[in-house]
Amino acid sequence: MIVELARGLWTTFRALFFEKKVTVQYPEEKRPVSARFRGRHVLNRYENGLEKCIGCSLCAAACPADAIFVESAENSDEKRFSPGERYASTYEINMLRCIYCGFCEDACPTEAITLGDNYELSFYDRRDAIYNKDMLIVPVPQGGQLPPLVTEPGTFTRSVPAMKDPVD
Ligand code: SF4
Ligand code: SF4
Predict the structure, then answer these.
(1) For residue 25, how far is its CA from the centre of ligand 1 (angstroms)?
(2) Would you say the CB of residue 68 lies under 6 angstroms from ligand 1?
(3) Do 42 and 136 form a contact (C-beta atoms < 8 A)?
(4) 101: which of 1, 11, 71, 92 lies 20 to 30 Å off by Cα?
(5) 42 CB-contact burial (10 Å; exposed 0-12 / middle 13-18 / buried 19+)
(6) Ligand number, closest to the Cα atom of 102
(7) From atom 7 of ligand 2, which residue's Cα is the shortest distance away?
(8) Is 108 exposed, middle or buried (0-12, 13-18, 19+ CB in 10 A)?
(9) What domains sit in the chain, N to C, each tagged with a CATH number?
(10) Residue nearest atom 1 in ligand 1 by C-alpha distance
(11) pLDDT 10s digit of each residue in the chain, 168 long?
(12) What's the pTM?
């Protein structure tokens, strides 16, 4: 009995004084996630600030959890949010429904929606779990402008930019 007790206490003391600590002081300290981790989504922009999302709803169609809602509106050269004819005037993801499968990312023709490394998702109210476009979209890159932009006619006619290398 005494031997077992001593052995148990030794295990505790050994971990306390001699072994490397594995506890992370979250939230001050955050563990890096794996490169393949799928966390909270972001909506991406081009370098000039235009939104990559063209409001096509392919992500919503691909979503097995019916977590995405997209509403689109028309672009014009005087008031342009994204390349091509349309942009997403409303974009919402219900994070309580999402199962982080990444199908939306795979379905998107412009790489507008990607799953990032943010895993800090907690809510006190179900309504707070619905992330809208303002919450999802990344800031305008340095040197870019916040849409709507006034653009040269004929410069942003393609919704999906031509790839330099078609095998990309
Ligand atoms: S990660 Fe999967 S479940 Fe979540 S929004 Fe995208 S397609 Fe839907
Ligand atoms: S995120 Fe991609 S798939 Fe979804 S509406 Fe925008 S462009 Fe289409």
Answers:
(1) 30
(2) yes
(3) yes
(4) 71
(5) middle
(6) 1
(7) 53
(8) buried
(9) 37-136 (3.30.70.3270)
(10) 100
(11) 889 999 999 999 998 889 988 889 999 999 899 999 999 999 999 999 999 999 999 999 999 999 999 999 999 999 999 999 999 999 999 999 999 999 999 999 999 999 999 999 999 999 999 999 999 999 999 999 999 999 999 899 899 877 676 565
(12) 0.86
